[in-house]
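Many introductory courses stop at the sequence. We go one step further.
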Amino acid sequence: MSEPDPILVERDGPVVTVVLNRPSKLNALTKAMWRQLGMAINALSADDDVRCIVVRGAGERAFSPGNDIGEFATERANKAQAIAYGAAMHETARTMASCRHPLVAQIHGVCIGGGLEIASLCDLRICGTSSRFGAPIKNLGLVMAYAEMAPLIALVGRAVTLELLLEGRILDATEALAKGLVTRVMPDGEVAAEARATAQRIAEGAPLVARWHKKFARRLEDSRPLTAAEQDECFDCFDTEDFRSGYAAFLAKTKPEFRGR
């Protein structure tokens, strides 16, 4: 029997779910999975029919425990191999960070190491009460590279990132919420429904606006002064069909139908 596709893409109208699909290994990540995840997100980012992407692990035991240690002997046994492996990871991280559409992480169970890195690259993270988070890579003698650390620092700051890396402690969902690692904690049986409802709320909004908001938020992480053209772009929405539709629907007290134009 052939191995199942380690990355699944499931479409439901404007909402697309990307699944880390190695349930027998709790969705532990391989170099091939990193590459395929990046290719999937890149293709979806270019698709104007997409309005929200949900990222999840297969099953409800784990989002992902991180990179598959069993692959280290063949893919990360020395510095040269690790550089090649890191290149795959970092290219996917860049792709996720620049994705035009909102990304929602649907987190069941453990979300550790590389799994936490993927979740941190999403815009919203919804987990269950039994979810666990951490990056205990110090116990493997491994460093979290700049490209891997940057999304965590952007999400929770230097102090919390170093707490995770220096102590290697595993956080429960309550502490993860308090530290800003997750957006929302739900009862375990309600995580999927809440992730779906979240994605639907996003998809019902004006898609051009969602893309602009993501673009502006990324730009504000850059310390360079905004240019006149960038300031001007904030008002482009007033010339869109979606603005006219949304404005008219508000006055008529009806639900707007946005078309991304």
